[in-house]
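Technical note accompanying the year-one report. For the benefit of new consortium partners, we illustrate the data format agreed upon in the data management plan: each record pairs a sequence with a structure-token string. No post-processing was applied to the example shown here.
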Amino acid sequence: MGEFMNKKDQWIMGIETSCDETAVAIIKNGREMAANVVASQIESHKRFGGVVPEIASRHHVEQITIVLEEALNQAGITYSDLSAIAVTEGPGLVGALLIGVNAAKAIAFAHGIPLVGVHHIAGHIYANRLVAEMKFPLLSLVVSGGHTELVYMEEHGHFEVIGETRDDAAGEAYDKVARTLSLPYPGGPHIDRLAHEGEPSINLPRAWLEEGSYDFSFSGLKSAVINTVHNAEQRGEKIVPEDLAASFQQSVIDVLVTKTGRAMDEYKVKQLLLAGGVAANKGLRAALEDKFANNPGIELIIPPLSLCTDNAAMIAAAGSILFEKGIHSGLDLNANPGLDIAIHNDK
């Protein structure tokens, strides 16, 4: 008991600037969220219909010190209390990543704190550890604006991508379909809302790919939606946006849920984790709960909405595992926009 009482608390700061959120969080002992601050730039990018890299970088420069101070204030600690600094090193927009990486390196150097580079998707997966402890082997369905992947894990910090998108990620397809329907950016939440008001009455394709593949493809579905709208316009017919959204969403969810179920059976996992920005989609969450929530022997973990979109708590959670494994980065750490998630397996 005395040994437990004397154990020093581990405080990990996470920094996330891979796209258009400037985020800093502090996690205590791997799983307890002491602070989670996010400064979003959605309003700045909305009029362009997507994220403008140069504008994103400038906003990160303006916000990073403010967000750092706010996180420390929320947690009630100072830099001297930190065990390590975890930062997203990639993938992402290189200019945006550089702001977070250089801020993390400056803090690490100035205060003599260990630095830990974290893969952005590893962060999304580890957001689930802030909800429940991970049980191995497990499978994570990662669905975001730039990524759609099935990731198998046998242990902490070891990632095997068994399926990935061959073209458009699911979130990217959502945004492009939303643009076709003249919905504002980001399109995903608007499509999700409309889908719940309509009926999936329009026949749209599902790309299953070759037998046994866990890869995804949404480019054909996106094109089918665009063609459906254009053909209706040429015939002078009116497409019901709610029905088109419902049909599109059902097609995406059917493929995601079916392939996930097959992978769960083949890999005999104990847990299924949902991760990424599209994990906030109500239709997807409901479909996974309906299909897998009562699956004997397999626990379904779905993080709260605040931990689905980009945040730094997930980076700190992933970083705490790497730190405990003794995996640190040098002060030569650089932004890596094309970083492979399997890189952590070899460190």
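Partners are asked to follow this layout when depositing records. Confidence is low (pLDDT under 50) at residues 1-6.
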